[in-house]
Design a protein that fits this description.
Chains A, B: It holds the Pfam family CofD. The structure is a homodimer of 305-residue chains. Chain A is α/β, with parallel strands linked by helices. Chain A has a domain at 32-126: CofD-like domain (Helicase, Ruva Protein, domain 3). The first copy, chain A, is 39% helix and 18% strand. Chains A and B meet through α3, α4 and α5 of A and α3, α4 and α5 of B.
């Protein structure tokens, strides 16, 4: 089974999937990676990794449980910008990653090493080892993703989203086989514009998924027209998409067989069926570990039908 | 007043000097700087900086008081080498330094910024902004200084000391004027081979000190033939020098007016006088802040005679 994932929503579904089968590959967005204090930070990879390792902060969804911020406080004292929260344990991940990348290792290699060290048995793949950066066009100008998302708290209207480097990005080793060779591919309920979008935008990925013999099942990140977390709704609106589980389905219609929506959105099922997708209606909110496993089980089940 | 300093001994004397006058420049050894987890670590600069900022760990002499090691523990969990102790607060210094150097700032600039942020009023100058690295020849081969010093706990016999980059190193801005324009230059009781030695070895520095009109006063790092801290005695022995306050005086005879030795070494005074140096005998052990200030006051006093 392969899961295409962004951050928190993707991590939760990947975690559920890893409890259903031990042969899970998670292809993770890297377009919101950033250089913070000179370190290579991969927020989505880390969120998925920490979640699968069982050390994620259950309150925030990102970061490590019981995290402290001693270094960040000291950086603040030194006059550094400290709007990007980096915990002391989390910092070790970024230090190790940055040092290994500087040694010439690829992001895939480093990701595999880190995940193994943390006891993650699922295979974690960055969508690409090449530079890829989501830029957000706003009334304040074009912003780096983390500038828009974290520093400015995704308050700016989104006029456009641009992927720097996308033309030259290649799928990381293993990504295309994970899409064409899987029995089931799940599209996690992550932001379709800035999480799943950049994964699909890596040249070759969307085509591989479109033509894959795998059963392809996506989960709507919108429930009742709202994102569980993050700016997906505002982004979709800003880019002229319908802000609903139907609107998101339209973005994926060429790469999916089944679209899973929440029970509160059951009224959208006929219109989604009209798109040519099989609709699965269930409780998609993943509050507990049990929810994650139950949803993943259902998705595998519906994929098999 | 200018102080030439290495790590802990240099930091203590610089601290004493800064309590005697508010116009102190400290020229600090950078040849034991190292890349640790990809970060630029400047142990001697940081020891002096933390000491002058009043945040040094009083037990170790290096590092920050009340330090925690959360990131280092997490790095260990990730399989990284963690023999170099980096505290969580200390890490912020290295992160900020490394990021600013990557931005193109010089080590002098970064050092001034960090020291200012920590409220240090004395001027801290790296001996050079250029790459300079102490390499230690041992029966186990040529070792990076921190490999020899920290990882292998300076247990190897020292067959030779080599300064990589010394031919191309230039004194950092302000270093030569600090030597030629000062009323008093103090050579701190730091390791003569790997702390004060590299400072003097930067082309132009030794000559500037030799010809400076300043009164030049050095303090022996050896008391009763032993170093207060670190491997100075073994190194001197390994390199064929006499392991005593007299042996160290011989290394500095061209750049000093006064050599300050401990009372336990008073019997060496005639031989040191024969070298052409004025001898000052006192209690040179700096246990307390008061000791530091008292010694610095005495050195200024004897310089003025």
């Amino acid at each position: 089974m392969t899961v295409l994932a962004g951050g928190v929503g993707g991590a939760k579904l990947a975690h559920g999937a890893s409890r259903v089968t031990d042969r899970v590959t998670v292809v993770v967005n890297t377009a919101d990676d950033a250089r913070i204090h000179g370190l290579w930070v991969s927020p989505d990879l880390d969120t998925v990794m920490y979640t699968l390792a069982g050390i994620a902060n259950p309150t925030t969804g990102w970061g490590i449980a019981g995290e402290t911020y001693t270094t960040l406080e000291a950086l603040r004292r030194l006059g550094a910008d400290t709007w990007f929260m980096l915990g002391d344990q989390d910092l070790a991940t970024h230090l190790a990653r940055t040092a290994r990348l500087a040694d010439g290792a690829s992001l895939s290699q480093v990701t595999a090493e880190l995940a193994t060290a943390l006891g993650v048995t699922a295979r974690l793949l960055p969508a690409t080892d090449d530079p890829l950066a989501t830029m957000v066009d706003t009334p304040a100008g074009r912003l780096d993703f983390q500038d828009y998302f974290v520093r400015r708290k995704h308050q700016d209207d989104v006029l456009g989203v641009h992927l720097d480097g996308v033309d030259d990005a290649r799928p990381a080793p293993g990504v295309l086989p994970a899409l064409t060779g899987a029995d089931v591919v799940l599209l996690a309920p992550s932001n379709p514009i800035v999480s799943v979008g950049p994964v699909l935008a890596v040249p070759g990925v969307r085509e591989a998924l479109r033509t894959s013999p795998a059963r392809r099942v996506g989960v709507s990140p919108l429930i009742g027209g709202r994102a569980v977390k993050g700016p997906a709704a505002q982004m979709l609106a800003g880019l002229g998409h319908e802000v609903s589980a139907l609107g998101v389905a339209r973005l994926y219609v060429d790469v999916l067989d089944v679209w899973c929506i929440d029970t509160v959105d059951a009224h959208l099922a006929p219109a989604i069926t009209d798109l040519g997708l099989t609709v699965h209606v269930t409780d998609t909110m993943m509050r507990t570990d049990h929810d994650r496993e139950r949803l993943a089980t259902e998705l595998v089940d519906v994929a098999g039908r």
